Every structure is written in C-alpha cells, then in structure tokens.
Design the sequence.
C-alpha cells in the first residue's frame, strides 16, 4: 500500500469518526464513559484471568467492586459536596464584594507601593478575575442541565454505563481479535505498530492522566479542608477535576482559594501564604514526580494542541466532546508522528538524488 493510500484511509477514517460523533452526540455520554471504564479495568480483569478466574466471573468481580466503591463514596461525599457547592454559589457574590472593599481600604498603601497606574490595573484585574470565577460557578447548574445530568438523565447514565462497561469487558478479547482479522495482511505489522503506539498514548491519557486528576482532586480537597478554608472541599475538588485542561485547574483553584482566604483570614496573612503553598508546592510535586511517574512521555501532546482540541471538541460536541478531546488528540498526535516519519523516509522529502548528494557532500 502506498503512502498516499494510507494517508487517505486514515483521513477518511477520522472524517467518518467525527461525523458519527456529531450525529450521535446526544446519546454518547454513557457509552463514552462505559468504554473508558472498560479500558481502565481491562488489566484487572486480565490479572484475575491469570489467577484461574473465568472471563465472566472476573468481569463481574472487578465491576461490582468498582461500583461498590463509587456508590459508597457517593453516599458519603455527595451530600457534603452538594451543600458546599450550593453554599459557595450563594456566598461568592459576598466574597467578591468583601474583596473589593479590602482592596479599596488598602488603596493608599497599594498606590504608594505600586503607583496609581499599576494599582488601578491590579484592582481591575482582580475584579475581572472575580467576575469570571463568579460567572463560571453560577453557570454550573445550567451546564449540568444542558449535559443531561438531572432527573432521568442521571438515572439513565447510572444504569447504562455499567452495562456498557460489562459487555465491553466481557468480549474485549473477541473484539481485539475481530479488529486484527480485518487488518490488511500486507500492512498488518505496520498497522499493529501504530495501534500499539495509540494504546500506549491512550493508557497515558485514561490511566495515567486520569490517576493524576483524581489525586489532584483528593489532595486539594483534603489540604484546603484541613486548613479550615471555607468551602475548601468544593473548591479543591473543582480545581482537581479541572486539571485535565492545562493550567486551568491550577489557576481556577489558586485564584478562588486565595480570594476566599484573604476575606476569611485577613489580617492573618500566614494563612493566605499557606493556601499559596498548597497550590505552588503541589504544582512542583505534580510536574516533577507525579506526572512523570504516572504519565511519562506516553501522551507527548503539546499543551497548545491539547487546549485547541478541548475548545474545538467542546464547541462541536459539548460535554461529550470535552471527554473525548484528550483521547482523540492523543490518537491524532500518534498518526501525525507516523505521517511525518513516513514523509521523511519518502522520495518526496529525500529527493531522487538525496543519497548521491549526501555521498558527494561527505566526499
């Protein structure tokens, strides 16, 4: 198969995939989450099979264990988280007003320290940031309605997702064999190499980055709650769960936490410093220890490309697009790297006299 035909096949595959996602975007949420859950749990099912469990029993044991953990956490944490989120939404306008009052009270000192022009810019920036954060949190209930996470949508999602995950896990090996059987024989080895790279990248996205996201949420929520920050559990969870968008989770959580800490603890500025240390210290740990260990170089996606993918797929497919953006960006990145590699080994890149020119230059 020529390079041109291979490129056309992959491009056609991506176009068809995007078209199908757009057509069925309204019903995809439980299937996307169920498929991600199956991919995440498949190594555990395989391990139980090695311990002489049948595939069906292994799937049932793993899935029931995960459902039990999720249900337990739901009943323990969701009522408290819900109370904190509602309280934060109600209290946030007051925090913005209090913060603006503090800035007005400090205006003489700030003007003397920074100068009138920079002080005005600082006040405008803080007010604008507070307004944006307030707007984001205020629209959360409406966004939940838009993605169907209310009433019957929640019930359907809750019931359908485990069923999808169960049947995918049960027939995982058969699906893999079926896909292998459809590959062209002459190109099977090369395509398997691409699929192996995609699998590593997807593992980094779903298992590695998903693990980092959950650890971030647990750390921020626990640390801010232990510090005594008002609504620390809700703020920490939102900051952690938003960390799949580069820099957004950190910036959102840092700005909101510091604003609340200033209003709540001032003039005890050491508590504000402690809040800053929670975020800045964890950023160092995440970037230098946690992320390299759990994710490593398996994703290898430029942050700019990742943010573009999130915005583009979010605009096209809504919440489902946000869930699919990172995995699809990882797949596209693998295909682009493969295309660049093939291009550099082609006559189009090297030229018909490339070897001869190289020999002449060496001589």
Sequence:
């Amino acid at each position: 198969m020529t390079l041109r035909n291979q490129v056309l096949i992959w491009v056609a595959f991506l176009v068809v995939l995007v078209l199908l996602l757009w057509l069925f975007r309204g019903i995809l949420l439980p299937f996307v989450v169920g498929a991600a859950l199956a991919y995440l749990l498949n190594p555990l099912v395989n391990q139980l099979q090695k311990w002489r469990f049948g595939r069906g029993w292994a799937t049932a044991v793993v899935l029931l264990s995960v459902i039990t953990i999720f249900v337990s956490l739901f009943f323990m944490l969701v009522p408290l988280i819900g109370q904190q989120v509602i309280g934060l939404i109600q209290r946030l306008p007051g925090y913005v007003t209090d913060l603006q009052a503090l800035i007005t009270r400090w205006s003489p000192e700030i003007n003397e320290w920074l100068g009138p022009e920079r002080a005005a810019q600082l006040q405008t920036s803080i007010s604008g940031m507070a307004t944006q954060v307030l707007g984001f949190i205020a629209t959360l209930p409406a966004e939940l309605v838009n993605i169907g996470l209310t009433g019957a949508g929640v019930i359907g999602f809750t019931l359908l997702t485990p069923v999808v995950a169960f049947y995918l896990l049960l027939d995982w090996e058969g699906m893999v064999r079926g896909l292998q059987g459809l590959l062209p024989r002459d190109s099977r080895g090369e395509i398997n190499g691409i699929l192996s790279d995609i699998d590593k990248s997807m593992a980094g996205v779903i298992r590695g980055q998903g693990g980092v996201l959950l650890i971030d949420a647990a750390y921020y929520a626990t640390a801010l709650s232990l510090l005594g920050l008002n609504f620390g559990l809700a703020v920490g969870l939102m900051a952690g769960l938003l960390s799949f968008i580069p820099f957004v989770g950190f910036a959102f959580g840092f700005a909101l936490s510091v604003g609340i800490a200033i209003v709540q603890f001032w003039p005890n500025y050491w508590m504000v410093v402690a809040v800053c240390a929670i975020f800045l210290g964890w950023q160092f740990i995440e970037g230098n220890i946690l992320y390299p260990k759990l994710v490593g170089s398996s994703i290898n996606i430029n942050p700019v490309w990742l943010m573009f993918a999130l915005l583009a797929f979010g605009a096209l497919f809504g919440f489902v697009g946000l869930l699919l953006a990172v995995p699809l960006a990882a797949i596209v990145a693998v295909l682009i790297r493969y295309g660049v590699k093939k291009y550099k080994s082609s006559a189009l890149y090297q030229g018909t006299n490339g070897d001869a020119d190289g020999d002449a230059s060496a001589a």
